[in-house]
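PROTEIN DESIGN WORKSHEET
SECTION A - STRUCTURE
LENGTH: 205
TOKENS:
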């Protein structure tokens, strides 16, 4: 007698703030683009990307506080969420067709399995550099990112800016051995700055 496979359900974790929604949608587009489980090219991914571009543009105007701009931005957000839901439905169909791989399929597309803790593909990691006293910071590259802004700290109270980059990585030098450092970053997009993401610790050997 064989037991029935538990159906994995796609769930979206749409953030509350506009910058985080933009980041979440960008990460989802990145995860779904050229994903082996989805068709390529994928009209539904293109639809999300198009709706996202409109949100970013509308958010830029909304930040200027022009009369009516927030209403326009919110309407664009509604359309983005609708496009994201259609993409989620497509991922659900693929997951249902491949029940043994369903959880992995769902998570590979940037969503999470309903009933499990929501998480995003690792956005940030720190690796030891090739030269002593250096560390390589690597962030999740986001579509539409203009620049990446980095910070470091030894106590998580006082933060020091690191030179911004236009790529999703940077090399930090002159670190003191036997010291634990903390790093974080945020992204500049057309709609403004994202909030700082999770802090990652690194112990310099």
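SECTION B - SEQUENCE
RESIDUE ASSIGNMENT:
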């Amino acid at each position: 007698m064989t037991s029935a496979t538990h159906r994995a359900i796609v769930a979206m974790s749409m953030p509350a703030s506009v910058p985080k929604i933009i980041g979440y949608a960008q990460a989802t587009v990145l995860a779904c683009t050229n994903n082996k489980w989805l068709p390529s090219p994928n009209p539904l991914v293109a639809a999300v990307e198009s709706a996202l571009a409109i949100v970013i543009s509308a958010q830029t105007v909304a930040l200027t506080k022009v009369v009516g701009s927030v209403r326009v931005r919110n309407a664009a957000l509604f359309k983005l969420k609708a496009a994201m839901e259609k993409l989620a439905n497509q991922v659900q169909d693929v997951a249902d067709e491949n029940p043994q791989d369903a959880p992995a399929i769902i998570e590979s597309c940037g969503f999470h399995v309903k009933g499990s803790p929501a998480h995003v593909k690792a956005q940030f990691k720190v690796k030891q550099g090739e030269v002593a006293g250096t560390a390589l910071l690597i962030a999740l590259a986001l579509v539409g990112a203009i620049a990446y802004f980095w910070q470091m700290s030894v106590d998580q109270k006082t933060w020091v800016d690191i030179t911004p980059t236009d790529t999703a990585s940077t090399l930090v030098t002159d670190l003191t051995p036997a010291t634990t450092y903390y790093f974080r970053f945020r992204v500049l997009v057309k709609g403004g700055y994202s909030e700082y993401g999770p802090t990652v610790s690194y112990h310099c050997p």
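SECTION C - NOTES
The radius of gyration is 19 Å.
Helices lie at 18-32, 43-62, 69-97, 102-108.
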